[in-house]
Write a structure and sequence with these properties.
This protein has about 90 residues and is α+β, with helices and mostly antiparallel strands. The protein contains five helices and three strands, in the order αβαααββα. Strand 2 and strand 3 form a beta hairpin. The longest helix has 12 residues.
Amino acid sequence: QTKYVLSRALRMGLKPVLVLNKCDKPDAWGRIETGEVENELFETFHSLGADDHQMDYVTVYASGKAGWATTDLALAHQYSSGQNAPDKQ
């Protein structure tokens, strides 16, 4: 479903905003820091025909369960480890 929706958006010329949810999971940061996630995303976008403009997407790091989201990688890492995480409203 995600690839289908993404492919439709790319064909329409839209520039996606990527949300990486569940960044609070124990194995998430290993995959993010090694570049594994970025490589998978690049391959997916490329295979769906994204142009250079669309490949320059914004990444939002998030935890729906913990109630936070940010585009700041360092802050996301902090939040995921429980340091200075915002209070859920």
